[in-house]
Structure formats: structure tokens, C-alpha cells
Amino acid sequence: MSIFNIQQIQPLKLPSLSLADKRSLPSISCIYFVLEGHEIVYLGRSTDLHFRWRQHHRYHDLKQLPYVRIAWLEVSDAWLLQEIEMALIAWFEPKLNQTSSNSVWIERLEYLLANPKSDFSSLPTQKMFCRLAVLMAEKDPQLSQRQLAKETGLDITTINRLFTNNFSRVDVGTVEVLCNYFTREVGDLFEMRNPEDIPQRKSRKRSNSEVEAA
Predict the structure, then answer these.
(1) For residues 81 and 28, what is the distance between their CA atoms, to the nearest angstrom?
(2) Rounded distance, CA 184 to CA 93, Å?
(3) Which of 120, 101, 112 lies closest to 75 in space, CA to CA?
(4) By the 8 A CB rule, do 85 and 52 touch?
């Protein structure tokens, strides 16, 4: 994505589809705007817009509103998505994002866009690791993902992605539910690890070796 002026972005003029047509959304890396009429009610980011809206945590709330559309601004540099998202939230202040204006994000984005990505090549390459499998084993060795979903009200797919560490982002509400369920802090649920130290779990069935490896 080239350098741009946030003030020049006009979400109402971006390509868009109705919420009812979300299955036709393209599989692109982008910032998306949820529009109700001429108002931006929500703003988010995704490396795959089509996949993101297959099961969006805001869908059931948004489908109650009339005339909802999803517009998108394609971003080829996925590493900038978070910075762009936060800067746009600070600028547009969508009511469902519940984030007040913060010019620091806009200034940070302008700096990142003005400096080559190579400037950040020395940053740590650690990734976020979810310790859900460990907490489940500690609470009850027989606790299954399906039972956890039933007791917390969370979607089984969401739990499986966290369990297998196959996730790209986590909803704050999901983290709150899990922390309250296990009576643990956020730092007990997530930690930073080197990619080679993250166990690769491919199924919903937990083995003793997997739990020990975590």
C-alpha cells in the first residue's frame, strides 16, 4: 500500500457489499468498514476478508440493523494492517469500536509508511502462544473442547483455533470469558514464544505428550 492521507479516505466510495451478501466478499488483505446507511458503525482488519466474515463476532448484532454494508480498503502490506486499523479508528471513531480518538496512532502510522519495512527487520520474530490446552489440562484432564464451549458459550471453532494455536487475532470478549472461566490472568493464557517452540496441534484430541510439551 502506498502512502496515503487518512483524511482523503472515503469509505462510502469504496467497493462494498450488503451484509446479506457477505459470502461473496473477496479473499483479500484489507481494512473493512461496516456501514449503516452513511455512518461507519464498525471498523476492522483482516488478512482474508471472506474468511473473516464467515463467522464474525459482530454479525448477530449487525444483522439487526437495516441497510448494513461492508466496504473494504485493500492493503497489500499486511504487516501494516494493525497500524492502519488503529489510525483509522482514531480518525473515524466508529461507535461499535468503543475507542476514543488518539492522534498517537495516526502519527505512528505516518512514520511507518514513511520508513521502509526493512527498517524493522531486526524486530523479534517471536509469536503469540495460547496456553489454553495447558489450562484445560490443569483444571480437568478430561475437559474437552466441546465441553468448554458448552460451559463458556464460546464457539467450538474459536476454541479449537486457540487450542491448536491456529489463530491470527483474538476477540477481547473471548479472552475475558476464558480468563474468568479459569480464574487466571491474561498472561496465564497467552505468552510470547519462538515459532520453533510452539507445539503443532492438528486435532481436537489432546494427548499427554502434547500437554507435557506445552
Answers:
(1) 12
(2) 32
(3) 112
(4) no
Residue 17's alpha-carbon distances to 44, 54, 153, 161, in angstroms, are: 16, 14, 30, 28
Could you tell me the three cell numbers for 65?
Answer: 440493523
Q: In this structure, are residues 72 and 15 in contact, taking their beta carbons and an 8 Å threshold?
A: yes
With both helix axes pointing from N to C terminus, report the angle between 132-139 and 156-163 in degrees, rounded to the nearest 10.
100
For all residues of the chain together, what is the average pLDDT? 82
46-104 pLDDT per residue, tens = 999 999 998 888 888 888 888 999 999 999 888 888 888 888 988 888 888 865 445 56
The sheet carrying 30-36 orders its strands as 16-18, 68-74, 30-36, 39-46
Find the length of the chain: 214
